[in-house]
User: Fold this.
Amino acid sequence: MATFGGGELIDLIGRASGNALKACWYQKWAVHRRLRPEAFGGLIHNMKTPAIGKTYPIHHEILDSPVLTEVHNRYGSYLLPMAYPEGSPAHPAYPAGHAVFAGAGATILKAFFDEKFVIPGPVTPSADGMMLNPYVGTLTVGNELNKLASNISIGRDAPGVHWRTDGLEGLHLGEASAIALLHDVRRVYNERFDGFTFTKFDGTTIVI
Assistant:
């Protein structure tokens, strides 16, 4: 099926994600150029190390934070400990590309599937990971897509390669890109179609 089938869905996810990433890289390089947490840690190290003696406009609450002493005692420097041995990517932090991609893809999926559909028979792993137990509660397609997108975004914060707002606004940028694409394709369907209706990340309902 050329429209409303699996092929169109995959095509729209790819197009929305590609457009979102282009917008993301424009924001990274032409607008914000925000330092990665790792690079910001380097500025702190330069200020806190007397032999280096550099000075930057960093707020005293950060420079006096007890966590810096803990990091120095454990690792021998004030540099931000990284989960990845190669360090963070060399391009700017804001917005986060992974979050932009996730936001765009999740939005297209929410537009095509019933967000309120309750997932039947969900299970959750036991504490030891050896068996699956019935999940207590209700899981819907819309909420699970939102959680998936959020987890991809937050997952980049934990290793130290992004700030929280990189991911949060990245999700919104991806969503906006997908919405713009859906407005375009809505106009070219030959079939009788009432439009796309879904819930945005901020909880509001949008009809296209």
About this structure: The mean pLDDT is 94. The first helix runs from residue 6 to 32. The two ends are 22 Å apart (CA to CA).
